[in-house]
Write a structure and sequence with these properties.
Shape: extended
Radius of gyration: 23 Å
Order of helices and strands: HHHHHH
Largest sheet: none
Low-confidence stretches: none
Strand content: under 5%
Length: 183
């Protein structure tokens, strides 16, 4: 639009702004992923080798792992852009619904006890509890169930369900391997 208005170098300036924004997101993602991987080592949820830090406190091995994953993703997207993008979109599909469904169920289960034992500790009063939570759970369950039957969303549903199964299996393996009294 700025080029059509004959603003000099508008396209170049906008490209520079977009490039800076993308680089900022990349730096943020690398920082977050390296710190997350580092934090996961504390409870044994990631390999112990990622606990080492430099003199400046930078978890270099975790940073290198995140950078390597980023490079592998770029190579995969370059080699087969349509397949990789479609896989990422489809595998994420219902995951968000599963996560929010788990949050809603946990909220109903965990709020019951303090509501009966120490209601004064509940600083955030949820209106229409527990009915609104149950309606939310029912609606998310309905949408998730419908995804299994609608042809357009069926791949998302099954890839997401597979992802949930892998995560729950990994959790169960981790739980069984944990020493008694840990985690």
């Amino acid at each position: 639009m700025l080029d059509r208005l004959a603003v000099p170098a508008a396209g170049t300036v906008m490209n520079a702004i977009v490039l800076i924004a993308v680089l900022s997101c990349l730096i943020s993602a690398l920082y977050t992923s390296s710190r997350m991987l580092f934090a996961l080592t504390r409870d044994g949820d990631a390999p112990h080798g990622f606990t080492r830090v430099s003199r400046g406190g930078v978890p270099r091995r975790a940073l290198l792992a995140g950078t390597s994953a980023g490079y592998l993703s770029v190579i995969a997207a370059w080699a087969s852009p349509d397949v990789v993008f479609e896989f990422l979109i489809n595998s994420y599909g219902a995951i968000a619904l599963f996560v929010y469904l788990a949050i809603a169920v946990a909220q109903v289960r965990m709020r019951r006890k303090p509501e009966h034992t120490a209601p004064e500790r509940l600083t955030l009063k949820m209106w229409l509890f527990p009915w609104l939570s149950w309606v939310t759970i029912a609606l998310m369950g309905t949408v998730t169930g419908a995804m299994a039957f609608l042809p357009g969303s069926r791949p998302q549903f099954w890839l997401s369900l597979l992802t949930v199964a892998v995560v729950l299996t990994a959790y169960e393996i981790r739980r069984r391997r944990a020493p008694l009294g840990a985690g």
